Amino acid sequence: MKVAVLALQGAFIEHEQMLKRLGVESFEVRKLSDWQKPKDGLILPGGESTVQMRLMASLQLFDPIRQAINEGLPVFGTCAGMILLSEGRLGTMDVRVRRNAYGRQLGSFHAYGQVEGIGDDVPMTFIRAPYIDEVLSPRCRPLAVLDHHIVAAQQGRQLATSFHPELDCDLRLHQYFVQMLAS
Amino acid sequence: MVNERQKLNRQLAQMLKGGVIMDVTTPEQARIAEEAGACAVMALERIPADIRAAGGVSRMSDPKMIRGIQDAVSIPVMAKCRIGHIAEAQILQAIEIDYIDESEVLSPADNIYHIDKTRFDVPFVCGAKNLGEALRRIAEGATMIRTKGEPGTGDVVQAVSHMRMMQSEIRRLVGMSEDELYEAAKQLQAPYDLVRYVHENGKLPVVNFAAGGVATPADAALMMQLGAEGVFVGSGIFKSGNPQKRAAAIVQAVTNYQDAKLLAELSEDLGEAMVGINEQEIELLMAERGK
Predict the structure, then answer these.
(1) pTM of the model
(2) Which CATH superfamily is A2-182 part of?
(3) Does A110 sit within 8 Å of B19, measured CB to CB?
């Protein structure tokens, strides 16, 4: 099993380390030739979504990535990655996302919350984080709600979180994604 | 040791990795930088090259000007305060800046003490020429480090020597036996627990960017190859012939810093680079401020 990690900008190494701890191989995608390698899934990491969007476009990665997800490639997006999956960007997930929903860096915080199918004590690190303003179709299922805002969701083989499981030592969400690859 | 807030602040720096932080002086420049793919902007009234040219005392920027830039973009906005100027830092925290650069580019306010950054909720980035300086700043609460380089020169030589120095000192610590670390801490004039962290992990406990004199996509790629986790570009963009194009090219160069063929394409037709002055021609070495 091999997972592609979008490595244009942001905290992609942290995801690679999580996968390594689970015994799953990964490789970095920085350009089209990287993307063309065989893969069983894709991780869209945290970082700045505006930067990642721009680089995806200028490196001709935007259309192929969107197509692969639409054709069923499992994908896991965290923070900026969730924004990329949302309406108006890649648009593969039927969600409307609010960027910087908790304000500037002084609004960043850490919490524990419940994620459906994972547990009720999942560590959640929010860094200038977005949340899901609106789920646009019944195909998309909210997995976690914190203070009345949706902070995790799943649509088929697409998984997205507002927070950064890659920054905490809890492997459960990555484990969940890896199981999704196997199914 | 590291409180919750500092942890979150270190983590914001992690999100900036692989990105370019650009100096901007107006909302218009900030929008150009964001559009070109900057992962954050540094709001300041004068870029370092102009600070050098103007001389005199250089201070924190007008909060109104900083707020104008905060309103113009959605990416993180940073701003500089003078070394040791606690009140300037408090003001920047009050306007909810995303990162404070306690910077040698401005005139130092204190010749002995840096700000105790552990007392703030807002994060700080600080410059360093070597590992000892970096670890002292981290002990004071900095949650991100950058090389000092020699700002406003367009000459990358100092950023290179600072990054090489840090990396070689890190490698030296990694190779030491545990009982040698106490003496190493003494020589580095840095806390033992941070020295031990570097020995065990082979890196700083915070993100380390390159800064000071980066002017071209090749400069940015060079710094990444030397171990920088991202790049600050100060005067290099808006002192050049075609800021939009140069900014976008530097952003791409940081992502694909090992792809020489792409770097060649990115380096084409960028117009005039900032003229630059080299270290021997300048009277004021900003990197010597704040050790």
Answers:
(1) 0.96
(2) Class I glutamine amidotransferase (GATase) domain (3.40.50.880)
(3) no
